[in-house]
Amino acid sequence: MNIRDSENPSQIKCWEPTSGRYLCSRPAFTRDQVKEAVAKARRAQQDFKNSSWQQRRDILTTLLDYLVREQSAICRISARCSGKTFLDATFGEIIPTAEKLLWTIQYGEEALAPEHRVSGTISFLAAARVEYVPVGVMGLIVSWNYPIHNVISPLTSAIMAGNGCVIKVSEYSGWATPWLQEVVGKVLEVHGVSRDLVTFIDGFADAGEALVETADKITFIGSPAVGKLVMRKASETLTPVVLELGGKDAAIVFNDCEYENMLKITMRGGLQNCGQNCAGLERMIVQDGIYDRLVKDVSALVGAIRLGNPFEENIDLGGVTMKSQLKIVQDLLEDAVAKGAKVQCGGKIYKDPKFPNGQFFEPTILTDITPDMRIHHEEVFGPIILIYKFSTTEEAIKIINSTEFGLGSSVFSLDYAKAEYVAKRINAGSCNINGWGFSYLCQSLPFGGVKHSGFDRFGGVEGLRGNCHIKALTTDKLGHLGIRAQVPPVLHFPIKKEAVGFQAALINILYGVGMWNKAVGVARLLKNVMGVQNGDSSKKVKTA
Length: 544
Fold this sequence. Notes:
Helix content is about 45%, strand content about 15%. By secondary structure, the chain is an alpha/beta fold. It has three domains: about 10-245 and about 460-475, Aldehyde Dehydrogenase, Chain A, domain 1, CATH 3.40.605.10; about 250-450, Aldehyde Dehydrogenase, Chain A, domain 2 (3-Layer(aba) Sandwich); about 490-535, no CATH class. The protein is globular, with a radius of gyration of 29 Å. The termini are far apart. One of its GO terms (molecular function) is oxidoreductase activity, acting on the aldehyde or oxo group of donors, NAD or NADP as acceptor. It holds the Pfam family Aldedh. This is ALDH-like protein.
């Protein structure tokens, strides 16, 4: 199922991953078309940047209302594009998008309102504040695993901040593009905003390059390999970039955890969207006291999962979106097994008798993993959960930090002091104690990673402000009373010989530690002022 039409390379072929059914062909944007879309968004943004907070809230409220009313249809679109089940779509497309919209509607204005800051010592006559100014046009390059949420989430922040948007959707989820364009365009139009403010583009690498070259800021959601290419291209124009990249998230599970609850949470965390989740739990690091029991229980649970087309009845897990991803998952598994890993259940590509062209991989539990295996270091992005054994707390911390990724993590223990100790030592962008996913769902929190999982953040106050230039402003605090900051005469041009002494005395007064140092400064200042006055008097006598 090739997405590039061999007979017409300017077309993107869209396929349903769980049936292999051809859906449609979409025209790929050329570089010039991308640049024109950015130019149109920039023109529309010149008006929109002056829009009221209420108008922006109204746009987002209409989107939220549509999302909730049409959730069933949206889940079907997501399933058709990406192969996920309807339940996975509610978890990954509807709920986090609704949370993002609702939080931004309720708290966005507060987060972006001018913020008064402390003036400081030398600037005591100035009132200081920070203002958040829209960057202009946000370029969003998003991945295929959540074709709705990955689009609407960053779009929400961009609109609230007063920006335009050009969004390159993944070529693997292009079937949804016309629907996304119509929905967002209609919402903008209803609220008196030009449709040109937001454009969705389909395309290949050249379209992404053109967007990086012309947008004012880039948010990229995808793999580390492509993230490096985006960053390299952005460096040519010094375009700022937010990179949300891959993960190798893990849950550390202690003997004293709440076992049954932990089991349910980690299975959802590991197999949500067939493991195609940037913050999915690819690893479970389990203490030796419950390791054998957990391997047995997890293998039984996973072995009973019903795999298939989400449009069929009684299906627990859908398909793998990209055919090439099937080979990546299989290669990683085969390398691990060849080096001694043990498959507890699953472990191979599944051929659905009803949908032989569907892209399925059996949910798999793998144990006895060692650092020489590729699967220990590389992101799987598929339905494989790796289970490690540990004895001591420090051993668990060493294992969880042993990869180049650092996106999310979890710790399960009823000893909260121990859990907090571990959480602080995990090198990741987030950690959930006795949970999974809350650090993403909680929209007041920033989201992002460290190491090869990317940098900068979206989500929360930090992510929303990331859609803005941060401008520092000062004004004379008591100007209305005729009191204004002035340069002391001794510092006027041409420079007097007493100027440096005056500054030294002033520094002692303002910043000297302890009353003695400040008193020394006062004495020096008085001596300096007297010297200036005497100097001026003698100069006048000579002139006369």
